[in-house]
Amino acid sequence: MTxxxxxxxxxxxxxxxxxxxxxxxxxxxxxxxFIVLSGSMEPAYPVGGVVFTKPLNFSELTxxxxxxxxxxxxxxxxxxxxxxxINQQEGFARTQGDANKVPDGQVVLPxxxxxxxxxxxxxxxxxxxxxxxxxxxxxxxxxVISSLIIYVIRxxxxxxxxxxxEVKV
Length: 169
Description:
By secondary structure, the chain is an alpha+beta fold. Helices cover 42% and strands 22% of the residues.
């Protein structure tokens, strides 16, 4: 049982380290991670997944690239859709969701483009949304505190018992 707890604890620490690496290091390089909230890009990027982006110049984009951008509407929401047309002379791209039957109503200007999608991880977004919730934050805090308590008990209390036992024998 103790071995299982150790392995689960190690796995949790590794997972947190990887998430921290991808989100912190990625952000310092201008990269981004965005949770997919609608089905407009299915099956390539399903609802609840996360897409990772990298910034690049408008001139580097090609038809067929999936990009993440800020919509020009009053809500200024972040959208990930695929480029179906690029007009370099007038400086805009036309996009459409893979699952949508018609192109987006507005064109995308270079200033609104956050980046080109480099990869996606299905279902990771559900976990991230949960971890951002009040309950998720408390759960993570309890896991960290419990891990520290288990570590202290194993390291100091159980070690002292085995040392005392060895001295008596």
